[in-house]
Every structure is written in structure tokens, then in C-alpha cells.
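User: Can you help me understand a structure? I only have the sequence.
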Amino acid sequence: MFRPRHAFILFLALFPVTLSHAQSTAPRVTPEWLYTEGIHVADLPQTLWLADNTAILFDTRQPESQRTFERLDPSTGQRTPVLNMSAALASLHSLAPDLQIKSALPWPASFDSAGQQALYEFNGDLFLLNLPSSTFTRVTQTPAEEKDSAFSPDGRLISFVRDNDLYVYAIATKSESRLTSGASATTLNATLSWVYWEEVMGRRDTAYWWSPDSQSIAYLQTDESGVPISTFVDFAPVDQRVIHQVYPKPGDINPRVRVGIVSVSSVPASTRWITVSGRPYEWLFGVKWLPDSSRISFQTLDRTQTNLGLYFADAKSGSSTLILTEIDPYWVNVSDDLYFLKDGKHFLWASERTGYMHLYRYQLDGTLMNQVTSGDWAIASAGGIAPWVRQAVVGINDWIYFTALKDSSIERHLYRVRPDGSNLEKISADPGTHRISMSPDAKYYFDQYSNLRTLPALNLHTSDGKRKAALAAPRPELLPADIQYPELLTIPASDGFPMPAQILKPKNFDPTRKYPVVLYIYGGPSIPTIANAWEFSTLANQMLIDSGYIAVGMDNRAATAISKKLEDTIGQNPGLGETKDLLDGVRWLKSQPWADPNRFGVWGWSGGGTMTLNLMTQSKEFKAGIAGAPVTDWHFYDSKWAEALVKLPANNPEAFDRTSLVKHAAGLSGHLLLMYGTYDDNVHPQNEEAFMNELIKNGILFDVALYPMRKHGFVDTPALIHREKTRLNFWLKNL
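Assistant: Let's start by predicting it. Here is the structure, written out as C-alpha cells:
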């Protein structure tokens, strides 16, 4: 969905800081520094737990010439290099001399579960690294691209997708087998359609799953025929290149998906299709194998997305059984928290049926045993996946370990509880945000910890919370010498609801002065922007405050992630409830003695761009605003997320009209800057163009900044720098 979908949120405009002579050795926060050096100050080593409960570490904070893969023994804390990097590079270059990899390999596409082998995807071909010998083997060398590679659980086979079909490669015999057939431009085997990649899988092209015994693979087959196609034009060639994207919009035909299972040893390979009878479905996802490899589980949603079904299917016959159903009057949030317990008799399931996301324990036949967690708080993801893919459980043994918002909606902490729901304990101690990765036996965990004033650190803990080793300390020496930090607070809505917020004031703040205020917002359901965690915005906002502004962030109640109850206040009126909350907050801010009520600005990207336009068309509170990549009419967005909010256009035309910003463009108040990339395959440029056209019809002037062939999230440094400078210049001119 149109959210801040990358490992960062897009932040406020930048301006050079003037440093004294005594501080001349400290870094200066300029746009150039921010996107070359500043983006790395919070870096931590990459980690992966292995099947034997040791871990692989790769510290990208080291100079490239000093990087290597290390194995960590959590029982002792000892770190041992497991690769001769120079020998591995020499081996790779002997196979592919043209690869521009000089001093260190990157993190691979996949490790085997034993940490002995790693898979790399270079220029569309696969390369296999044997870590003990530091040597490479070339797996493929074809004109077609190989992608989505993975090891079988036993490490003997490599799976990958080529030309929309699934293949396996036997490492011992260096032989390749094709497992699926019939792929085409519209029939996809084991790879995803865009809307599934974006909205369901959280930007992971995960469309096949190995059985635990390494004998079979379950995969999705997608039929895209009939799904509308959108186009983009690349300006670069003399004869312009037209790019096609399969993209369903509300009411359109969606990709049709089914699950198949194929044996990796059958010759010729044949697929057993899973049948779902009695309940038509629109969306299918969440495929997982049961531990004995005899069955798979999967989930379905109807077109309204209010009815979710969990199924178990027999891997040999293909017949499926409905195990349980979740119903929500607005939409069901999808969760990845389905786990089969080692007793072979029970599974864990996450549900928002009480209005809060909690865990439940079931028998395999769907009989509810007990609610595991309960209360007016929610389990919540603490990093590692996209925020719209819910996953809070991090480990299971005699305890269930999970992250939650129990003690604070702006912090993530680790807890544990017995499967019967008894003995709930808080494990993490330090106030802030704990991003947890647990060993397979749940005896140890990595904690990526930070708070609003502390850069992230990586620590190794035992499962009771005791710190065993500091693996990577914060690096405050990389920060500007006189950095300012935000203040956390709550701002009351008109009914008293405390909205989480933060305020960043200039270094020499004078409470008797009146300051212009810039508000950053996002606003979408359960995507909070306020957290007691280190944020890139702390750096980005330094130049804004040094230019004489106060920077504010605020979450309306539906954005806080506290509960589904609060999300459901949006109902089928996206933009209206959020706007009311945020305007309440703005009026409170304007009442503060340090705020200049006549100089308020607002901005956001993606969902925040949409909310910016909502605020500027439904109020006269803002002198200026910047809307980055906004959805301006739900007719223009993808079917999965748009229909969750406003359902089908044929059934609910009034909601589409009521929420259309295009239809409200004539009410725009304040000077507007629209920013977007011309190859935004998420929020298509027709959103901005339709809104601009209405402004033109009504004689309303506006600014626009187009970024040729950039997508929804900018990734190239020149565009990032240019965008920051453009935003600041806009504030200086208009606020």
C-alpha cells in the first residue's frame, strides 16, 4: 500500500548548518553529507541465525578491505571468521571477470541452514559460494534472468525462478531440473504479480516454499490475463521505451492465484493443485508447511476483505479443510503469526477479534484451546519485515516470545508467556525500541536497541534478558557536535485522545519568539511515525531548525497501531477521521506561545502526501504544504488496498466521491508543491496529474517538482539531495 515502504521514512527538508571554528572537525549536516555519510551513522552488522543456533555476522561498518563473514557462538560470545574474502573474490573473478566487486562481497541472497554455503545473484546469474573453501561455482549462465534463489532445508538443492517457471539445481551433480511448465507473460509460476508483491508479501517476491523434508515445493501460480495494464514512458532512448505494468484498480479483474505442490524428484515433474470448495476467494496467501511435510496451510480473503479463512490441505490429495474464520466489519489485517508447536497437536494464531492483536492457541482441527495474550494492548512487529505485514512472535520453546506495545504505544518491548497464557513477563528493560531476532531454540536473541537520543546498538542476550555480549556499540562520534533532539509528548484531540507527537526546536530556542512550524504527517492505519527510537529525521531536521523553524511530527489515533478499534474509526471514510484528529492537533499547536499561527506548513510522502492534500483542502490552517507522491482518488490506486478501505466502486460510489481529493481540489488553501517520480509504479502519476488539472481549471497556482524515471521511493543519491534542497527552498520562499 502507499506507505513509507522502505527501511526509512521520508523526512523534512534540509539546510546547511553553520559551525563554529571550534567545531570545524565535526560533520556538517548538508544534503550531500546526509545522503553519503549521515545515512550510515545508524548502521549495524547484518545477522542470520543458523540451524545449530550459531549465527553469521557481517559488519558493513568496517572498511570494505576488512569485512568478512564471521560465525558467532552465543554460548561463549566468540566470533570466528569463516571466509577468506580475498580468496573468494579471486575465485569469483575467475568465473566472472566483468563483475565490479573489489574489496568485499555483499550479503548474499541466501545462506544454507548450516552456514556452509551462500547464494549470490549477479547480473541475472547464480553463483554458489562454499564458505570453508572460499571458492565459487557458477550455477547458471543463460540469457534469461535467474531470481528468487534459495537452498532446500537440507542444503543439497538450489531452487530458483527463470522465465516465470520454477527450477532446482542439484549441487552434488551440478544438474538442473525444471519443475513447472506453461509459464508465459500472464502465467506466473513461483513468482508474484505486482499487487501481491506490494500489498500481500511486503515487497518480497516470495511465491514458493520448501517442505521441511526437502522433498516437495509448494508454489503459487498466478493468472494475470484480463488484469488491466498501465504504461510508463522512459524519456532516455531516442525512440522512447514504453514500460508495461499489470496493475489492478478498484473493481478491475484481479490476478487469479492457486496453490500447487510439486515433488523435486518426480520425472517428469507434475503439480498437484490444492482445491478450495464451498467458499469463493479473491486473495490467497500465507502458505506454510506443517512440520511433518504432509500438509500445508494457507489463507484466503473474499473480495470485500472482511472474511478470512485459514485452511489446511493434504499435500498428496490436494483436498483442503477450513480450520477457522476471521471476520471484521471493515477489513481483516493479515498476520504472519501462524506457528505449529513442537507437540504436533497445536498451533498459534494471531487475531484482532477483540479489537487488539493477540495470540490464540488451537488444536490442529481448529478447536480453540485458550487465548494466550489478552488486554487492552496489542502484539506488534518490531522490525525485520514491512510494517503492513504483521509478525510479532520471535521465538518458541517452553515459552512464547513476542514483541508488543503493552507498556507504551511508542516503544517496542520483548515479552514471553506460557502457551496456556500464564506467567506473562517483560524481558527487555531499557526504555526505547527493541528489534528482536531469536535463535531457533529461543535461548538467545539479538537486540537492535535505540531510543530517541541514542543511536542503534546490537547486543546479544540470553532469553531471560541478560546481556551476554555487546556486538556493535552506538557511534555518536559520527554525529554533529551540537545536534538537537526532539521532545516526546502527547497532543489532545478534541475528545481528549492523546495523540503521540514530537517537537524539535532550534538550539537557541527563545520561548518569547514566534516560530514558523512545519508538521510532518503520514496518517495511514497502524503506520506510526512517532517512536522512542533513533530516527533519521533527527538528522534531517537539523537544518530545518537551524533555518529558524520548529519541526513537529504527530500521529492521529488510527495511525498509532494501538488497536484495530482505532483503525476502524477510518471505516469507509479514509482521510476524514484522520484529518479531524490532525486539525485538532494543529489548533493545539497554534495555541502554544512559541508558534506563529500564520506560518504553519505541512508535508508528507505517499500516504502523508494524501493527508497533506486532505488537510489543505478541508481547512485553511496552512500557509504552505508539500505533497509527495499522493493518492488523490481511490479509483487510481491498486485494488487490494483501495477496496479494503472503500470497497467496490459499483457498490459504494458515494464513498469514492466523498474521499476524492480531485473533487475537492478547488478548495485548496495555501501554496502547494507537488513532488513525484514519473515512473512511480506504486502511486501512478495520474494521481498528481488529475489533481493538477483540477487546480488549473480553477485558476489555482501551484508548484511541481518532477523526477524523471524515479519510482515511489527515491534511491539514487542525486535525486535525494535535489529533493531535500527543493523542499527547503519551498519553505524558505513560502513560509
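Now, to help you interpret it: The two ends are 31 Å apart (CA to CA). The domain at 21-39+477-734 is CATH 3.40.50.1820 (Rossmann fold). Let me know which part you'd like to focus on.
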